[in-house]
Amino acid sequence: SHSKMEATKILPVLKKKLAFLSGGKDRRSGLILTIPLCTEQTSMEELSATLDYLLGIPSEKCKARGFTVIVDGRKSQWNIVKTVVLMLQNVIPAEVSLVCVVKPDEFWDKKVTHFCFWKEKDRLGFEVILVSANKLTRYIEPCQLTDEFGGSLVYDHLDWLNKRLVFEKFTKESTSLLDELTGINENEKGSQAEKDRSSESNILPSFDPETVLQTGHELLSELQQRRFNGSEGGGGGTAWSPMDDELLAQPQVMKLLDSLREQYTKYQEVCRQRSKRSQLEEIQTKVMQVVNWLEGPGTEQLRTQWGIGDSIRASQALQQKHEEIESQHSVISLKSCEPLLKLLSDATVMCLSQMSQQLDGLLGMLCADVAPADGAAIQQTLKHLEEKLKSVEGALQSLREKGQVLLDQMSTQTSFSYGKDVSIENKENIDHIHSVMEDMQLRKQRCEDMVDVRRLKMLQMVQLFKCEEDASQAVEWLGELLDALLKTHIRLGDDSQETKVLLEKHKKFVDVAQSTYDYGRQLLQATVVLCQSLRCTTRSSGDTLPRLNRVWKQFTVTSDERQHRLEMASAFHTAAEKILRESPELAELMVDVEAYEEVETVGKGLLDRLTVPEDPIGGPQDVLQTLLSSMEKTTLLQQ
Fold first, then answer.
1. Distance of alpha carbon 40 from the chain centroid
2. Helices 544-582 and 621-638: crossing angle, nearest 10°?
3. Whole-number pLDDT of residue 541
4. Which residues make Cβ contacts (< 8 Å) with residue 506, sequence separation at least 6?
5. 3-state DSSP call for residue 28?
6. Has residue 126 been placed in a domain?
7. What DSSP string runs through 297-360?
8. Is 316 a member of any domain?
């Protein structure tokens, strides 16, 4: 098996491209290895090193399918070709299944080529054939051959080499980094003694994890891109043909990246824990210094000073006084120890002012009047309110915690007092802290109630906008129905049956319009109610109501007219059809004159109605024609 050697070690040799894996495959899916011999003398040692390197790339499974080796001898002498073929036997005998020697067109001297490879098959362990470049496609598909053999496979040697270098650098660095991080992380789980030992040792890894991860990601996206460009192995050589699982570059990079991310996250946690530990140790040391001072020279002074101030200003004055005490003591630097009163005053003063600011901000927002332009603006305002409320919550929580610490400290203070009764002063301080916290709680509660009211108002506004929008929509729909009635509902039917059907359709059509109108009215009523509830006198339904009523009035007039016409047409057709049905048999008898007159009257009435100039629908010509011809028939019969 071929040892994994690094490209950097033999870079000058690899650059010479003495052999390469283009990513192409023979018909048995074996990889194609090309050895392009050139006019100058090829160093067998360098060629051997190149082959060793290339054979370290594919997986065992892939090598088991065997290689096809193309030895391009067109620019070389026969004896070199022979040497190379014999050399293959030593370098990769088990893995070569076929060697194609590409011969020059003028062919080598006959005397020289009497050395017959086929006789040597058993000795060599593989088959060797001499072939002209244009005959190579008998053995290998053109899409798997590079252009020097007339194929269409793209291969860029330099690009391939650069990718190999990046890949190997990443693999090397990430593997080494993984070992280091895993070591550090495992160590952290060990016993306290081990931890103490390791905290002395340096825990900085030798490579920057962020940089290595970045390199890995860039490399991975390069590899994956080849898949999308559809160029299997194109420009990337075998190791960069991501479609082949056996060429392990891509899965390997992914696996390394995953492990690296996992260990790096653990490592960051370890660092956090260590930094916490060292901070605690530092604090412990300082606290011990304070205790020593308190038991010694500080006792007297601290005995006389218990107040913590009942306002920000008072606390700050006490703080200043306290700092003066600190500076008098050259024995121990109290500055770094942060004794009790200073620490507590600071924290509470900070928290109080933060909480006040947060509440003022929220209150300001609630007092400002709102007139948002649309639903989106309302959503934005609501979101803003919720955020403000959240930050007030946070500030109050923080104040509670700080206050509690202050109270706890006060109750344990007696242990420092060495017999002096400090409960009276303490009681005042404790009561004051309680009253401040209650006051803040009440202020927050009031703000929350106001937020609830504002939220309700906003949601009603959203409803109002929606109702107004829908009401306008209803007016538009009604307008479209009116339009349809005027322009397309014109036919009166050619016989009584058809007229009946048209009457039915007309009724349904009117029902639809009626419900649209009612819907519009309900929406407008809802907007009035919402406006009253919101007390927004500035808004009104605008021109929507008059528009709705105007369109509805036009619709009613037009539809009534249509109804009348259809009813008259129906009466006319029924009467006319009756006469036409009975007349053939009764031609010789006297027909009922009244029946004729009725038909004529109805017909004339309908004609007059259709020719009225100010008629809202207008008289369609074809209807007139039908009526006239029906009336002519009846008149003829009469005569």
1. 58
2. 30
3. 60
4. 489, 559, 562, 563, 566
5. coil
6. yes
7. THHHHHHT-----SSHHHHHHHHHHHHHHHHH--SS-GGGG--HHHHHHHHHHHHHHHHHHHHH
8. no
**CATH number of the domain that residue 508 is part of:** 1.20.58.60
The answer to whether position 219 is within a domain reads no
| Beta pairing, strands 31-36 & 96-102 | unpaired
What sign does the CA torsion over 128, 67, 222, 263 have?
Answer: negative
CATH number for position 28: 3.40.525.10
Domain that holds residue 471: 463-612
Mean pLDDT in residue range 226-249:
46
Residue 409 domain-assigned?
Answer: no
**Which phi and psi (to 5°) does residue 33 adopt?**
-110, 125
Domain limit, last residue, from 129, 155, 181: 155
Tokens of 602: 């109805």
CB 503 within 8 A of CB 566: yes
Question: What local confidence, expressed as pLDDT, does residue 335 receive?
Answer: 44
Mean pLDDT for the chain?
Answer: 78
Residue 25 φ then ψ, to 5°: -135, 155
What is the amino acid identity at position 321?
K
Q: What is the DSSP letter of 119?
A: G
Q: What is the mean pLDDT of residues 561-583?
A: 87
pTM: 0.43
Alpha-carbon distance 616 to 13, whole Å?
Answer: 97
| DSSP 8-state secondary structure symbol assigned to residue 59 | -
Q: How many domains does the chain have?
A: 2
Tally of CB atoms within 10 A around 606: 23
Region for 38 from its dihedrals, namely left if φ exceeds 0, alpha if ψ lies in -120 to 50, beta otherwise: beta
Quote the DSSP letter at residue 146: B
Residues 47-105 pLDDT 10s: 999 988 888 888 788 888 888 999 998 888 888 888 888 888 777 766 788 888 888 87
Q: Which residues contact 17 (CB under 8 A, 6 or more apart)?
A: 36, 157
pLDDT digits (tens, 9 = 90+) for 509-567: 999 999 999 999 999 888 888 888 887 765 656 788 888 999 999 999 999 999 998 99
The per-residue pLDDT for 72 is: 92
Residue ending a domain, among 155, 190, 206, is 155
Across the beta sheet with 96-102, the strand order is 20-25, 31-36, 67-72, 96-102, 127-131
Distance CA 572, CA 581 (A): 14
